[in-house]
Amino acid sequence: xxxxxxxxxxxxxxSTLQQKIDQKTKPLGALGKLEELAxxxxxxxxxxxxxxxxxxxxxxxxxxxxxxxxxxxxxxxxTAQMVLNFLNGGAGINVFAKQNNMQLxxxxxxxxxxxxxxxxxxxxxIGMGTASFLxxxxxxxxxxxxxxxxxxxxxxxxxxANCNVIAFGEMGIANTSSASCLMSVxxxxxxxxxxxxxxxxxxxxxxxxxxILKQALQYHALDAQEIMRVLVAFGGFEIAMMxxxxxxxxQHKALLLIDGFIATAALLVxxxxxxxxxxxxxxxxxxxxxxxxxxxDYLGAKPLLDLEMRLGEGTGAAxxxxxxxxxxxxLNDMASFASAGVSESTGVSEKI
Length: 352
Hints:
Strand order of the largest sheet: 3-2-1-4-5-6
Number of domains: 1
Shape: globular
Mean pLDDT: 95
């Protein structure tokens, strides 16, 4: 397995960055979370003048054997159909990535379909979908390590091409089931608190999905200390590859934009392996998927948006990018009290 070593943020500049933020022509703290973002990004890049370059969206796609158990209202073939939609420019993520001038790469980590070559498609296929984790691990240890290594390599390739902010999205019918099981074991919470409606299950479908996942968890009987075994048992190829890409991104001190429930579940695995990764992450939004808010709370994450979205594809991460840009821009371009000739607060309130 790739030997990931993620350093903590360099705190040497923290007080100077905070001073620069506080000296802008505004009351202290008046830009709220934008100020926290500016401080974070300045520390990640170890500079008072951070820049965002070549923002890139990586959408990892893979199929899941557990889909054959009837836990999604959509057939497995939709994974491949949606990848073709991405490549044809017709999906939500295409619209939002284009709007924000983000490079969009679609990564075939393990879709049960052979795609024709396409300039925006990265063929990184580990297999034609995972096994059903109902009665066996979703993948082998070797496949999992291969996915992690490939993911890290994909991140490095983007960073070597002058990208310093990578957003993470996914596509895979039944991958909310995979994410729910990862969350349940690694956070040590009942599956009922993790599982949601995915692509639109009704009450009966949700009950069936919950029962099947409960059986799978009982069969594997893993605990939160067995991180790699948990990923091998329940992960998708796209989730494992995303874990590797996230670790690789942080290792090279680039910024991560984390999308919804599945992307956050991948980050959960990454954070169990390398806790310092959380310092490099911006959490885009809280999705409408049932377990996501609990997972964000577990990670101590503060999502920037809550738009009741649950589309996946990286759409939330794309939508949050202008907010991240705004944090960097105010730090670099907003006048200070001194440069603008504006008087600072005296810290004294007048009594009426």
